[in-house]
Amino acid sequence: MRQDRKEPDQRRSARVSAGAGRGLSGPVLFDAVLLDRDGTLVEDVPYNGDPEKVRPVPGARAALDRLRAAGLRLGVVSNQSGLAKGLFSGDDLARVNARVEELLGPFDSWQVCPHDDGDGCRCRKPAPGLLRAAARELGTVPRRCVMIGDIGADVVAAGAAGAAGILVPTATTRPAEIAAAGQVAGDLTAAVDDILSRIERVGADAPARRGGTVLVVRSDSAGDVLVTGPAIRAVAAHADRVVLLCGPRGRAAADLLPGVDEVLEHPLPWIDPAPGAVDATELTALTRRLAAVGADEAVVFTSYHQSPLPLALLLRMAGVGRVSAISDDYPGSLLDVRHRVPPGIPEPERALSLAAAAGYRLPEHDEPRLRVRIDRPAADPSVPAEPYLVVHPGSSVGARACPPEVAARIVGVLSAAGYRVVVTGGRHERGLTAQVAGATGIDLGGRTGLGELAAVIARAGALVVGNTGPAHLAAALGVPVVSLFAPTVPFGQWGPWRVPTVRLGDATAACRQSRAATCPVPGHPCLSGIEPGRVLDAVRLLGVPAGRPGPEAVVTGGRAVARGSAGGRR
To answer: Once rounded to an integer, what is the mean pLDDT over residues 182-198?
Structure first.
C-alpha cells in the first residue's frame, strides 16, 4: 500500500533535483520529515479505529505537498496503544491509515508502536525506536530528519534519536512540554515553513567566492567556536587560506577545527563577558595585526545578541575590502554583505546561513554537522578501557552549572546502576570534580585540556553535562548527550546539534530567557530539582548500554509495526 518506492540513489537524485529547482547546492540539512499522526496530521480521536472519523488538520494536504515538491521523504511515526488495549484491530488500523493517505497523499514509511505504557518496548515514544526505523526505511539517518508532533513525547523521541524536533501544540499539549521544546510552531503549515526556510537558508544561492585569504571571526568561548565550525569549513572549501580570529577563551577549540590554517588570538572588549577597558593602543595594535593577515575578505560570525560592527570598523581600517556579517543594526558602509536571520534557529545553522550568503557553501560531500580533529591520546591511564559515561559538572557560566550536590548524586546513581563514570573538569575545578566523583567516580579534574577531553569523550557512551563547551564537543564527536540545560538561553539555539540528546531541567523556571550569567533565583531551581533517577532513565533512553534487545518489527494490517520504552499519552 506504500507508494513511490524508490531506491536510495533514486531518492537522492530526487532530493538533489528538487534542491536545484530552489537554487540550492551542496548538502541539505534534512532528507526526510517524520510526523505524528493523531493531533498533528489529523484530529485526535482517542483510540480511533474508524476511517470515517479521520479529519485532517487545517492546511495539512497543502503543507505536505510542499514538502514532497521540495524532494523530502515523508514518514508517519505513531503510538497506537489501542492495539494493545484491544480497542481496535490491526485491520482497523490499516483502514484508518489508508484513509489518512487517501486524504493527505502517500507516505514513504509508516512506523507504528502497538504497545502500551507497561509493555517495556523500545519503540513507544518518547523512545526513539520508531524514528530510527523510519530513517532506515527512508534510506537516511535520524540527524537528517525532522520530527513534527503535538506532545512532548514526540519531541523527546526526536532528540533521543538525534533528529530535529518541532512541536505544534494543541489544546492538550502541556505548558511544560511547550517550554521544553527547542522549536515550536503555531500549526503544521508554520512548521513546514520553518523546515523549508532552514534548508534554503543554509543552501542559499549567492555568487560563489573562490580563492584568496579569508579572515573568519568568532571571538567567544570554546562552545561558540565549536558551533561555528561547519560555517568555517564552508569558507575553507573555497578559500586558499583561512585565518581564524578568536579570543583567549576560544583558542583551544580553534585548534581543533578542520579547515583553519592559522589562528589569530586577541580579546575583543565588546564581546568578552568580563572585558577590560577599551584601550586605544590595544585596538591600534589589533588593527595592525588584522592588516598583516592580508585578508581579501572577512566573515564575522557572532552570537545572536552580539554586534559585528565594532570589528567591522577595524577591518575597514585594516584595509579588508569585503566584510560580511549578520547585523540587525544599520551598518552603513561597514558591511558589504549584511545578512539577517530570524531569532530561534540553531547557532550552527545561523553561522552556515551567513557563510552561504557570503558565497561559501559546504561542498556536497561535507555534511552539515560539528566536527573536530582529535590527534592526542586520553590524558590519564585511569580512564577505563570498557564503555563508560562522562559527567562534566562545571561551566564557565555559573547559572548553567549543575549544583555539585546534584551532580554527586547523579554519579552515585549511575555507578549503582553498573556504569563506570568519569568526572571531568578544568584545572580550576579540581575541588568540584573530587566532590562530584566521590568514592565511585573516576576523577579527571584538571588533567585534560580540550584536546585530551575530546579523546576521553570520544570513547564514552554518553556525556552528562550542562550548557557548556563539552556539550558541543560531544556533538562534534557523535557522542549522545544528557543535557542538564538551564533555560537562561533558548535550547533550540544552544542545545547539542544533530546528536542524540535528552534534555533535563525545569524549562519553566523563572530564569527562563534571562541570559543571566549568575543564577538570579535562589536555590538554582532549574537544575537543583533534577532527580538523579531521571538521568539514569535518560541514559537508558539513549541506549547506553543497549541492554537486552527487544523483539523485532512485525507487520500489522499492512503497515510496519516496530516491536520491542517509555510512555506517551497515546
So the answer is: 97
